[in-house]
Amino acid sequence: MKMKEMKTIHEPAKEIPVRDEVDVLVVGGGPAGLMAAQAAALEKGTRVMLIESRGSLGGNMTQGLPLLGFLGRKGNEIIKGLPLRFVERLRERGQATHHRACPLHVSLTMIDPEGTKRLAWEIMEECGVKVLMYVFCVDTIMDGDEVKGVIIESKKGREAILAKVVVDCSGDGDVAFRAGAPMAYGNENGIAQPPTLMFSMRGVDSRKLRDAVADHPDIYDIDFIPNEFFRADDNCTMVGFRNQIRQAREQGFNLPVERTIFMTGMAPDEWWVNMSRVNGIDSTDPEQYTRGEEICIRQNAEIVRYLKTFIPGFENAYMDRVAPFMGIRESRRIVGEYVLTEDDIFNCARFDDAIGVASYPVDLHHPVGGDCTLMWCPDCYDIPYRSLVPQKVDGLICAGRNISATHLALASVRVMGPAMCLGEAAGKAAALCALSGVQPRELDVRKLQDSLRAEGVYFRD
Ligand SMILES: Cc1cc2nc3c(=O)[nH]c(=O)nc-3n(C[C@H](O)[C@H](O)[C@H](O)COP(=O)(O)OP(=O)(O)OC[C@H]3O[C@@H](n4cnc5c(N)ncnc54)[C@H](O)[C@@H]3O)c2cc1C
User: Fold this and answer.
1) pLDDT tens, 76-122?
2) Domain for residue 459, yes or no?
3) Is 174 found in the same domain as 50?
4) Whose CA is nearest to atom 37 of ligand 1?
5) What domain range is 251 assigned to?
6) pLDDT tens digit string along 121-169?
7) pTM
8) What span, in angstroms and rounded, lies between the C-alpha atoms of 363 and 446?
9) H or E stretch including 244?
10) In 257-369, where does DSSP find H-type helix?
């Protein structure tokens, strides 16, 4: 069938102002971008700028999600360095919990979204990172295959920012994609994990919920974890209640998932709900993103009704906060100098160019259907620097969920602990490259590793 050709117009070339010129430009202020900007700025004499399209810093850290991945399968702390310092500062303010070991998710660290936004600002200010919000990186400035900066758009129109090295922490690989780097998307059929619009419920009788779950495994089925685990008044994510979903569906409830997922918030009566789901959404297409957001809003209304009817303790609860945007689990990722695979994860791979380690399981929200599969790494695996460096394009390093990994490997390394660790490594590498005039793919990785070790990053012996 012949596709209908899209109508186009010709946009004439024009002069645009150069707003700034820096050593390292970080695109995207999520967990990876924040750490990248801080790490780059800690390298003496580096001029660093961070640009962010939204009105707050933190990316998915502002969604009410726990930080996953700080502990390894053996219970040891594997994410240290700047990410750990970030969490410790939140903890000092009562805005983060301890890392609780969890049989399903390995470990959970709850954080306060508003506290996170504030601390992010403070850190950027302390280390002299120039922050510019409400600007969208829409294109790259290229010299052959080398990125020399980016084009941003805002209410001021189009402007340029020149940089010696750009760090792409946009989550969607926006910079790499515009620069013409080879990219991958989703699974073998090009379908990504589905997005979710998180929301919180307050007024939950948490004691009643915990006791009901612990006392009645016959009624409240929980995936994988023994029900007794949830009696303790501690951080947790409850995944299961498949019986309740079945019963609700029999009664005509329209629910998008096979199991219920909610997790503790920072307040005793607060639980965050991770249950809306829209399959087949490409978040890089605004029309699809819009449709997804709208569907999630409708789904969440039904999910509230379900929780109040079927889950003990939720009877008098109410929807409190809704995440500022529909969260994207997966979209574009680079094809880098190395593609991290699920075999690397399951075999606890070691790499000479390791820049950190991760241990979180392959946590796959099925791109089709409403279920989820977890597959664990027996201990932890190295993340190689080469997975941060795109093929073909110079002047660019990537971190966060747009790194070079297979669909399954990304389902592990995408969570926020590793994303922060990758950000720190990418920012440090970018600063070293910018200061010494070396391309990212030519960087002496031992120098980077020494610098990361000095910052307290965890490496295996
Ligand atoms: C629903 C959901 C549940 C999840 N659950 C958990 C969980 O419980 N625990 C966990 O640890 N992880 C969880 N994850 C995964 C994790 O949140 C992400 O993979 C992680 O945040 C990735 O970090 P990042 O910095 O790469 O991207 P993001 O957090 O997405 O940050 C990217 C930032 O870049 C900005 N940006 C994007 N494009 C541009 C542009 N062109 N110009 C300027 N700025 C731009 C965005 O506004 C954003 O602030 C979940 C993800 C989702 C979606």
Assistant:
1) 999 999 999 999 999 999 999 999 999 999 999 999 999 999 999 99
2) no
3) yes
4) 170
5) 199-322
6) 999 999 999 999 999 999 999 999 999 999 999 999 999 999 999 999 9
7) 0.97
8) 31
9) helix 242-250
10) 286-310, 342-346
